[in-house]
From TrEMBL:
SUPFAM superfamilies membership: GAF domain-like
GAF domain residues: 216-381, 403-569, 598-751, 793-958
InterPro entries for the chain: GAF, GAF-like_dom_sf
SMART domains named among the record's database cross-references: GAF
Protein name per Swiss-Prot or TrEMBL: GAF domain-containing protein
Originating species: Limnofasciculus baicalensis BBK-W-15
Length: 958
């Protein structure tokens, strides 16, 4: 390649090499310029090839005859290079090009198809696709005047059309969407979903993160649908999920030509997908779709989104009960020619085949599992969003006049936002007048008779009412139509639910009107009445109902506190505003901090407030409330050992000792010698060193309307009244102890205390649910976060991955082996006792890690690994190091493109709770804590973990 003077000055070595080349050619031939022209015809100016070919010419035994330079150079290239290029050390970069072309199967097929087009057509228009950039980086093609062309004759002669066809045939035989590959793809997507669930459940603490977690779930669904469409050769694919009312299908992933997401909703029984949902049968229209009477909606959508459907396949996804949960709809089967790269060829529509149906049928189970997991995760997300929304509604209530109307407006504005409803109303029960009332903007107070209209009907029946679009088709819609005519508003859908207090009393009814489609839409225009805008053509579903049930439960607690604040005032002699606000603050704080400490501190705050009120009523020195758990087998309470420390839970059996007797008889127990009662109910939560300071005791059961014990109030040390401030505790004690009058006071307040304690029980159940959910995902999320946050060098990522994997699986030793394709080896850096790192290498295929790298398949060997037929190498290594290998889990780390990047190796699963380090002097004995095996959960967690490592590694390794 000829360079200009500035380039020569920057690269003197290139200048010297060029001079030597020219000198050598002049010595070889009198027509050296002609010889150089022929060289460049073969090399296209590629520097390495040009230098090597010139060197080959100079070192040739003969010289080119004058006038026959072209033929002589061609013969030299053909005889010395092209026939045996793979064994020529000077052409090693051609081997690199070949290896990079064939390394990643899916990507390689795309590159080879593009390269084939360039070979066949001579040139291809430049479009800056990833494949075009990759071919240019490899040097196979060059950009000239907006077109891609083969770089030189040498590349064209070595990587010729027959070579490309052979390589493609070999690759495609390996990656054709066979059943096993199809299932593997779905398995990868399911793992991606699990990672997304970890992210979703870890991002519910703020509104912005909640939006991000919703997007993560959305992307999983889109990817599942896209992959099914891709593997079955469809131009478009859509997943329709069936709502739990089984009335409507809705899509999450359909896209138009501009790549925008479409919001498509179809009633069951309507259109192709609706018919499949209704009949549970496959519909396949191979040609002339528009002539099919079932395709009316297809024509409408095609016209709206500028598309033409030639053939269609709609397939029901059934659960284990043979009920439809979703419909997958595929449009326009594409011919293989469609897979050409660089430009879009006109598709050839041939219809879907029996093989497509058979393959899809075999993969229903993993597809169903993914979709059901998505739905489950979506429900959890909506429940947490409901909790967070109520926290937003109740936060800062102290800044406004704390009355029922203020709460009414704030709560329903939040419900409207949460449910994406156009209008929302909270109707409250007026027990004195026997009807319901609310306040509407611009109208003031409005009342509704029980049993009249949708709201009145829900108040009368105490059952929810959900009416999908279009509400005007409902038999009881006459009243709504009349109201709409007066107000010039169009009611299209409705969700009406009762608000019940913790003790079962009807407090009100929430009414949501007109579910709005996602996105930004204008306010309803009265001038358009009675036309229905497109964004009102939506329905409230079971997810909305469940979300509002959670929401209404919290609203019921709030309204109950508002309603019973006078009772609280009598109990604690405090201002009503303080009583209500304290409770609202608890509810708000409980969703702001989802840690165990935050949740239990919130519960302690709630309980201590009630305990303080009861203590003041009884004039007791200290009071503890023990609540029955959901299984009715234990009582629990929350205590703080020292001021400023976190709250913790304490539990006692409800089937033993004094507690069991109180549960059976619902009787009160009092004693003036509690220190002599050897029972856990007396001593738990108390300072054992101060047992002598307990002078009298009252145990009082709180009983619900069914006669079941909900809680036991434990009060110690009845105090004299009035108290002398400078008196000792012993002087303050009323030696007569608690009396029947004290018990009567509690019995009178049982009705006011009961709903508050039931609210505490409900909150406690929610804490346990969150803990169970977190227990399943926290270790994995911690490991993923640790790796994701790593931004250091390769040595740092090796150590980070090893430590994270060790903690995740409770393994004794871990190693991250990285792949070196140049040497065909695995390598890592192992820390030494002095803190230094020593590089270690093993050949590909050697040992367990090497075999995993070679095959791409995980290896899980349970205890005892020495019984495994391939354990000889591990035994030899153990003998040198005096370490005992007992179990092993070895798994591949793949990039997003499926390229093998590394292997994680976990050695010796440890039994739970074991902390001892292995002592080399005990070798070859097996300690008890090594007698364990990696299980399916470890393997599944490591699959997800390795996915994240595969994302991080390319960035660190460059």
């Amino acid at each position: 390649m000829i360079t200009n003077s500035s380039e020569q000055s920057r690269h003197p070595e290139a200048n010297n090499t060029g001079l030597l080349i020219i000198k050598g050619l002049k010595e070889k031939s009198q027509n050296s310029k002609r010889l150089l022209v022929e060289v460049l015809k073969w090399t296209g100016g590629q520097p390495v090839l040009t230098q090597q070919l010139c060197k080959l010419i100079v070192e040739a035994e003969d010289s080119p005859p004058l006038g026959a330079e072209a033929k002589w150079v061609e013969h030299l290239v053909q005889s010395r290079w092209l026939g045996n290029w793979e064994n020529q050390p000077e052409l090693v970069h051609l081997q690199t090009i070949r290896d990079r072309l064939l390394r990643q199967k899916q990507r390689s097929v795309r590159l080879l198809k593009l390269y084939r087009r360039v070979l066949q057509q001579g040139e291809v228009l430049v479009n800056e696709s990833a494949e075009q950039r990759e071919l240019r980086l490899l040097g196979l093609v060059t950009k000239q005047q907006g077109k891609l062309k083969i770089h030189n004759r040498i590349y064209e002669s070595i990587f010729h059309l027959d070579w490309v066809e052979s390589a493609l045939k070999s690759l495609q035989s390996e990656i054709d969407p066979s059943d096993s590959e199809f299932l593997k793809t779905l398995s990868d997507l399911e793992r991606k979903l699990l990672v997304s669930q970890v992210e979703i459940l870890s991002k519910v603490d703020s509104e912005t993160e909640d939006q991000g977690s919703a997007q993560a779930l959305y992307e999983v669904l889109r990817d599942v649908t896209s992959k099914v469409g891709e593997l079955l050769g469809a131009d478009r694919a859509t997943t329709f999920l069936l709502n739990e009312e089984r009335t409507e299908l809705w899509s999450l992933v359909a896209e138009n030509e501009e790549g925008e997401f479409l919001d498509i909703q179809v009633r069951v029984g309507e259109g192709i997908a609706g018919q499949v949902a209704l009949t549970k049968k496959v519909i396949h229209i191979a040609d002339n779709v528009y002539n099919d009477p079932r395709a009316t909606l297809v024509k409408e959508f095609d016209k709206k989104y500028n598309y033409r459907t030639e053939n269609i396949l709609a397939f029901p996804i059934l659960n284990e009960s043979k009920e439809v949960i979703a419909v997958i709809q595929l449009l326009n089967k594409l011919a293989q020619a469609q897979d050409l790269e660089g430009e879009r060829q006109p598709p050839k529509h041939k219809g879907f085949t029996s093989l497509d149906l058979e393959r899809l049928g075999k993969c229903v189970v993993p597809i169903r599992r993914i979709l059901e997991s998505c739905q489950s995760c979506y429900k959890v997300m909506k429940k947490l969003r409901a909790t967070a929304a109520l926290a937003e509604a109740t936060r800062s209530l102290d800044q406004i006049n704390l009355d029922t109307k203020a709460i009414l407006h704030r709560v329903m504005n939040t419900a409207k936002k949460l449910m994406n409803a156009d209008r929302s109303t909270l109707w409250l029960v007026d027990n004195d007048r026997g009807d319901l009332w609310t306040e509407l903007p611009g109208k003031g107070e409005v009342r509704c008779e029980v049993g009249v209209g949708f709201v009145g009907h829900v108040a009368e029946s105490r059952e929810l009412m959900i009416i999908p679009f279009d509400l005007y088709e409902h038999p009881s819609a006459e009243n709504a139509k009349k109201t709409d005519e007066q107000t010039r508003y169009r009611t299209c859908s409705l969700l009406c639910m009762p608000v019940i207090s913790p003790d079962g009393e009807l407090l009100g009814v929430t009414q949501l009107i007109n579910k709005r489609k996602p996105g930004e839409h204008p306010e309803y225009n009265k001038d358009d009445w009675p036309i229905v805008p497109d964004y009102f053509k939506a329905s409230f579903d079971k997810n909305d109902r469940q979300c509002m049930q959670v929401f209404n439960e919290r609203v019921g607690v709030i309204l109950q506190f508002v309603k019973t604040h006078e009772t609280l005032k009598k109990l604690a002699q405090i201002e009503p505003k303080e009583a209500v606000y304290n409770t609202l603050a608890i509810l708000g704080n409980s969703v702001a901090d989802h840690t165990d400490e935050g949740l239990y501190n919130a519960l302690y705050y709630m309980l201590s407030f009630i305990q303080s009120s009861v203590g003041k009523l009884l004039k007791a020195e200290r009071t503890t409330i023990f609540l029955m758990d959901g299984e009715e087998s234990e009582f629990w309470s929350v205590v703080v050992d020292a001021p400023g420390s976190d709250a913790k839970e304490i539990r006692i059996s409800a089937t033993m000792g004094i507690a069991s007797k109180i549960v059976e008889s619902r009787s009160i127990k009092a004693s003036n010698k509690p220190g002599k009662l050897n029972d856990v109910l007396i001593h738990i939560g108390s300072d054992t060193t101060k047992i002598d300071s307990l002078h009298n005791l009252l145990l009082f059961p709180i009983v619900d309307i069914k006669g079941h014990v909900v809680a036991i109030i434990r009060a110690f040390n009845k105090l004299l009244s009035p108290l002398t401030s400078d008196a000792t505790l012993a002087e303050k004690i009323d030696r007569n102890g608690f009396t029947q009058t004290d018990a009567d006071k509690l019995r009178e307040r049982n009705t006011g205390i009961l709903p508050i304690l039931q609210g505490c029980q409900a909150f406690h159940r929610e804490i346990r649910t969150i803990q169970e959910r977190r227990q399943a995902i926290d270790p994995l999320y911690k490991a993923i976060s640790l790796v994701s946050q790593n931004s250091g060098n390769t040595e740092d990522i090796i150590q980070t991955v090893m430590q994270a994997a060790k903690e995740l699986t409770n393994s004794d030793r871990t190693t991250l082996w990285l792949i070196d394709y140049k040497t065909n080896e695995l390598w890592t850096k192992i820390p030494q006792a002095d803190g230094t790192l020593i590089e270690t290498r093993v050949p590909m295929g050697e040992g367990f890690a090497g075999k995993v790298a070679e095959t791409g398949h995980p290896v899980n060997i349970p205890f005892d690994l020495y019984n495994h037929p391939d354990s000889h190498m591990a035994r030899k290594t153990d003998e040198k190091t005096h370490y005992r290998t007992c179990s092993l889990l070895c798994m591949p780390v793949l990039s997003c493109d499926g390229e093998l990047l590394a292997v994680t190796q976990l050695v010796n699963k440890r039994t739970s709770g074991s902390l001892l380090e292995y002592d080399p002097t005990d070798w070859p004995e097996v300690p008890d804590y090594f007698q364990a095996s990696f299980d399916e959960n470890d393997q599944k967690d490591m699959e997800i973990f390795n996915n994240q490592v595969g994302v991080v590694l390319p960035n660190v390794m460059g």
